[in-house]
Amino acid sequence: MRKPRGGSVAALAVSLLAACSNNPYPEADAERKILYSSFAEPPKTLDPAVGYTTSDHAITGNIYDTLLEYHYLKRPYNLIPGLAVAVPEAEPRPGGRVAYRFRLREGILYEEDLCFGWVGGAHDA
Known about the structure:
Number of helices: 2
Shape: elongated
């Protein structure tokens, strides 16, 4: 029996390594624009009202949209519309209170919730 030559052993090793890809992501995603990322620690909460850490915001900032956002290139910071059509003006209310009425962009879906005054699609600020 003959010993295999060094070239054929190297070719076999290369073909075996090529067959054993170390890519953990699906082949279908190879041509798509998908960003995979990892985090040093899991978020403590996905509730944007109580999440305050950088790792929480790294996830919730990509999931939740806000009514208003900051224009980060202007100083001092200016508010700009996010989900809202425009930045609302303050509406005076009895007792020295003020209210803000937000108009949502077309096509925005939301969950009705009594804590915001939504009752069967009607809203009374």
